[in-house]
Amino acid sequence: MKRILPIVVVLVLAMGSAVPSAQDFPTRPVRMIIPFVPGGSIDTVGRRIADAWSVALRQQIVVDNRGGAGGNVGTSTVAHATPDGYTMLYGNLGPLAIGPHLYRKLDYDVAKQLAPVSLVGSSPLLLFSSTKLPVQSVQELVAYAKARPGQLNYASSGIGSGLHLAAELFRNAAGVDIVHVPYKGLGQAWPDIGTGRVQLLVNTYPGSVAQLKAGRIRALLTGGTRRSPQLPDVPTGAEAGLPGFETTAWHAVVVPAGTPRPIVAKLQQTLATTLQQPELRERLAAEDVEPIASSPEELGRFMRSESAKWGKIVKAAGIEPE
C-alpha cells in the first residue's frame, strides 16, 4: 500500500520547488532599470556595464530607462518589484541618498525596500569656472568670491539635484557666499557659462569635456580623493585646503528587499568579475569612472553614510522637502 504524504508536507515540497535557485539563476533575461532618460552619463555607463555583465551572468540584461522625478519613478518600480533577482536598479546618489531628504511623499523606503548588491563605480565631481572669470585657481576663486559676497552665481541641473548639492558642499567648505541659478538641465546653462553671466558649476568630466576643449570653462578642483587621470593638474579638496569638498557621482546596483541571499551573492560575484575585465575598465576610464566592486554590506554602510551626509547639506542649504 502506498504511503500518502500529509497534505502539509506536499504543500511545503511544492513551495520549495518554486523557490529560485542561485545555481540555476538566471533562467531568463534580467531587467536592469536605469531611473533616468537615455543619453546621460549614468545611462551610458550603465549600458556598458550591462553588456559586459550579461556575459558573466550568461543571460541577457535588458536595460529599461524609467526616468522622472529625479530618479524616483524608476527607483519606485524596483522597490515594488517581485524580489526574485530578475529586476534590479542601476542607481546613484540622487534617488538612493539625496531623494529621501527632498521628497515627503516618496512611495518607497530606500532602507526598507531596497537591498544592496554592489557599488559599481565612482566618478569625481569637479568645480569649474567660466573662463570669463579672472581666476586661475581655487585659491584665487575663494579670495575673489569673499571680496564680492553674493555677486557670483553657480549653475545646476535643478533644485535638489546632485550637482546643486555638490556646489553647496563647496560653498560650505570654502565659506563663500555664492548664488544658485537652477536650470532644467545643464544644456540650458552652457550659453550663460560661456558668456560669464553665470560663473561657476559642479559637474562630471564627461559632461564638461566639450566645454573644456572649447575653452569656455576651467577646471579648478576635484571632489575625488585623488586627482583625475583626465585632469592631472587639478587638485583635490584636501590638496587645495578644502578637505570638506569631497564628492563623487557614484553608481550602485540594488534589488528589491527580500531577494534571496544566494541570488544577491551571485549577482554581486558576477558583477565583481565583470568589473575586472581590462576592456571594460579601459572604457570606464575614458568616462572618468573608476570601477569599484563591493560587498552588499559595504554598499549598505556606504549608502547610509551618504544619506546622512547629504541630509545635512539639504538642511544647511534650506531646501524644503517637496
Put the structure in a nutshell.
The protein has 322 residues and is an alpha/beta fold. It has helices at residues 7-18, 41-57, 72-79, 93-102, 110-113, 138-146, 162-174, 190-195, 209-213, 261-274, 278-286, 296-316, and strands at residues 30-34, 61-65, 87-92, 114-124, 126-130, 152-156, 178-182, 200-203, 217-222, 248-256, 290-291. The strands form two sheets. The protein has a six-stranded mixed sheet, with helices on both faces.
Keywords:
322 residues, alpha/beta, D-Maltodextrin-Binding Protein, domain 2, 2 domains, 6-stranded mixed sheet, 5-stranded mixed sheet, 12 helices, 11 strands, disordered N terminus
Describe the structure.
This protein has 322 residues and is α/β, with parallel strands linked by helices. It folds into two domains: 27-122 and 249-316, 3-Layer(aba) Sandwich (D-Maltodextrin-Binding Protein, domain 2), CATH 3.40.190; 126-222, Periplasmic binding protein-like II (D-Maltodextrin-Binding Protein, domain 2, 3-Layer(aba) Sandwich), CATH 3.40.190.10. The chain contains twelve helices and eleven strands. It has a six-stranded mixed sheet, with helices on both faces. Strands 7-6-8-5-9 form a five-stranded mixed sheet. Strand 1 (30-34), helix 2 and strand 2 (61-65) form a beta-alpha-beta unit. Helix 2 packs across helix 10 (261-274) and helix 4 (93-102) packs across helix 12 (296-316). The longest helix has 21 residues, at 296-316. The N and C termini lie far apart (69 Å). The model is unreliable at 1-19 (pLDDT under 50).
CATH superfamily name of the largest domain?
A: Bordetella uptake gene, domain 1
Distance, first to last CA: 69 Å
- Kindly report the CATH topology of the largest domain: D-Maltodextrin-Binding Protein, domain 2
Outline = globular
* Sheet/helix structural class: alpha/beta
Gyration radius from CA atoms, angstroms: 22 Å
- The top-level CATH class of the largest domain is Alpha Beta
Count of individual helical segments: 12
Q: List segments where confidence is low: pLDDT < 50 over at least 5 consecutive residues.
A: 1-19
Considering DSSP H and I runs of 4 or more, what fraction of the residues is helical?
25-40%
The biggest sheet, with number of strands, parallel, antiparallel or mixed sense and barrel status, is: 6 strands, mixed
Beta content: 15-25%
Walk across the major sheet and give the strand order: 2-1-3-10-4-11
Helix-strand pattern, N to C?
HEHEHEHHEEHEHEHEHEEHHEH
